Amino acid sequence: MMGCMIQAWSADDVRAAEEPLLTAGVALMRQAAFALAVIVRRDLARRRAVAGPDGELRDGSVRGARVALLVGAGNNGGDALHAGAFLARRGLAVTAYLAAPRVHEGGLAALLAAGGRAVTVDATPTAGPAGDSATSVPEAATAAAGADVIVDGLLGIGARGPMRGTGATLVEALAAALADAPSDGSNDGRNDGPHAVEAPPRRAHASASAAATRPWVVAVDAPSGIGIDDGTLPGPVLPADRTVTFGAAKPGLLLPPATHVTGAGAVIDIGLELPPPGRPGQAPAVVRLQDADVVWPVPGPHDHKYTRGVVGVVAGTATYPGAALLTASAAVQAGAGMVRYQGPADVGRAVVAARPEVVTAGGRVQAWVLGSGLPATGGDDGQRGRARAALAAASGRLAGAQEPVPAVVDAGALGLLDHTCPAWVVLTPHAGELAALLVARGEAVDRAHVEAEPLRWARRAHEATGATVLLKGGASVVVGPGVVYAQADAPGWLATAGAGDVLAGLLGAMLAARAPEIVTHPERAAQVAAAAALVHGRAAERANPGGPITALAVADAIPGAVAALLAQR
Ligand SMILES: NC(=O)C1=CN([C@@H]2O[C@H](COP(=O)(O)OP(=O)(O)OC[C@H]3O[C@@H](n4cnc5c(N)ncnc54)[C@H](OP(=O)(O)O)[C@@H]3O)[C@@H](O)[C@H]2O)[C@H](O)CC1
Ligand SMILES: [K+]
User: Fold this and answer.
1) What is the 3-state secondary structure (H, E, C) of 145-167?
2) Which parts of the sequence bind K(+) (predicted)?
């Protein structure tokens, strides 16, 4: 079972938590470095696996394996150097590439004492080869690209702005060298995030020495140069196959786009107390839900459609009828008590023909799903009017309407927001739709800006509208009152037409099932939205593991995905 939610704490909170331990003389760096060395050795052994006489793959020997440490000026480099010393003492061939005039003295001394080597990377281009204790950036990049593993200890939580100096030129040269190197597949760009500690798959090689072609890249605490607290990629970054982070996950490891370059993760407990002493009540900066965190009401003998949650769907038009079916199907498959479809009669007939559980009669609902399949401008005034009225009712602004209820506002309905909303209204834009929503509120921003800084702009949209914002993408960011979630559960195959319609219907059913609670505690809508993104990803994985999927297949896979989550309880 996937463990419980991952809490990511800001660099400042992590430092505050380290302080008392450092003051007490706790050897945090040696703890961190030892754990890092153990993981590097284990990953290497698995990548050098050899088939035994019985054909079983067994971890290969790591003796003599070549380790390249990329060392920066701070304690991040110190972690790498001390880890290199542990590895050198176990017979690995360790070379440190020092990308700063001064590096962590204790770590360097430990490495050299253990038999490791160190060369200074001289960024100033020299006519001939650099001195014997120094090497040029191109030479260092070529040497490191030929290693079995690269340990990226250039920058950690002390990074300020885009990586600069020798480290930056070295990373750029290395990223170029590695981009050309064929991979044996075990670096297959996995993004498991910091919860997954499992090592890379074992790859059979003719012999232990025939290691994989491209080095395994292990980031120390974080891939150097990412935005530690906001997940941006402000400058050069060396994508990692594994990130070993200390004390707690950092927001940048969970947030896009940086979460896509962290590889598989490992959070090493070094005894930090979080929230930090002296900051009681401090919340984690970003949270990522795991399977066990998904709250899914299981009906009992006294339940009926209204206690399970009736979902009203205003989606699709005569031009885009498919969105109506996808949204309604997802809500039905997610176990809604009932789904009321509101829209053009011929679209309603097509929906009911495909999903006889859906009704087209009006009546009470516990959540609305508005806008999927509606164009941002023009198009069907009838649908726009229905969506506007439902949004007003959901928000409690329609006199005489039933009690306010949660609503999902998607696609063409996003342009109907002309008031601030309660947080039980959840917006589900993609980057382009979020940019349009912000431009309508005076921000000079486009899709590329939103994709470069998803947290910043999703937070801005939450502040501007009051609604909970689920910004969809390769990884989804959810911003609600005082809380941020970042989910990266979706396989790349989910980037397909109609997937957003399915998410909207799924989320609507999940909100309807807990409507009274969510209207009373609007901050919980964000957790439901994050859970919907997780279930959406799990359903996509089930729809066709490892291959192309259709949105309708994702909707049809929701029941199985939910059953699998509940079976883990
Ligand atoms: N404190 C401990 O014992 C433990 C720390 N851990 C590890 O340490 C790092 C944090 O170490 P710190 O020294 O605070 O910071 P960094 O190593 O990340 O980097 C600081 C140096 O990097 C320079 N710097 C800052 N920004 C940039 C940039 N954009 N480009 C290039 N260089 C940069 C900075 O120079 P300044 O001029 O800004 O001072 C510093 O020289 C943490 O991440 C852990 O890996 C252990 O994990 C736990 C124990
Ligand atoms: K690093």
Assistant:
1) HCCCEEEEECCCCCCCCCCCHHH
2) 76, 152, 224
Does the Cβ of 159 fall within 6 Å of ligand 1?
A: yes
Find out whether 158 is annotated in a ligand binding site: yes
On the 0-12 / 13-18 / 19+ scale of CB atoms within 10 A, 280 is exposed
* Ligand closest in space to the Cα of 163: 1
Determine the average pLDDT of the residues in 47-59.
85
The predicted pLDDT at position 200 comes to 54
Give the number of the atom of ligand 1 that is nearest the alpha carbon of residue 22: 3
Tokens of 475: 């990884």
Question: Ligand 1: which of 121, 155, 230 to mutate, most ligand atoms within 8 Å of CB?
Answer: 155
Grade residue 48 by pLDDT with cuts at 50, 70 and 90. Answer: confident
Report the predicted TM-score, pTM, of the whole model to 2 decimal places.
0.94
Q: What are the φ/ψ torsions at residue 540 (nearest 5 degrees)?
A: -65, -40
Do residues 525 and 475 lie in contact, with contact meaning Cβ atoms separated by under 8 Å?
A: no
Q: What is the rounded CA–CA span in Å between residue 270 and residue 283?
A: 20
**Residue-wise pLDDT tens digits, 451-510:** 999 999 999 999 999 999 999 999 999 999 999 999 999 999 999 999 999 999 999 999
For residues 36 and 244, the answer to whether their CB atoms sit within 8 Å is yes
User: Measured from the CB, is residue 163 less than 6 Å from ligand 1?
Assistant: yes
Q: Is 231 annotated as a binding residue?
A: no
Q: What is the mean pLDDT of residues 167-194?
A: 69
* Of the listed ranges 178-182, 312-316, 504-508, the one predicted with least confidence: 178-182
Distance CA 115, CA 118 (A): 10
DSSP 357-369: TEE------SEEE
Question: Going from the N-terminus, what domains does the chain have, and what CATH number goes with each?
Answer: 29-48+61-273 (3.40.50.10260), 299-567 (3.40.1190.20)
The string of pLDDT tens digits covering residues 107-157 is 999 999 999 999 999 876 554 444 457 899 999 999 999 999 999 999 999
The pLDDT value recorded for residue 196 is 39
85 is in an annotated binding site: no
Average pLDDT estimate for 291-295 = 95
Ligand 1 centroid–CA 455 distance in Å is 23
Which two tokens mark 348?
A: 């309603």
Whole-number Å distance between alpha carbons of 84 and 88: 6
SS3 assignment, position 485: strand
Strand order in the sheet with 468-471: 6-8, 286-288, 483-487, 476-480, 468-471, 425-427, 407-409, 367-370, 310-314, 338-342, 358-359
Chain position carrying tokens 């990377």: 121
- Tell me, what amino acid is at 94? V
The per-residue pLDDT for 402 is 76
Q: Which of 303, 286, 373, 372 is nearest to 338 (CA)?
A: 303
Q: How far is CA 116 from CA 68, 112, 483, in A?
A: 10, 5, 45
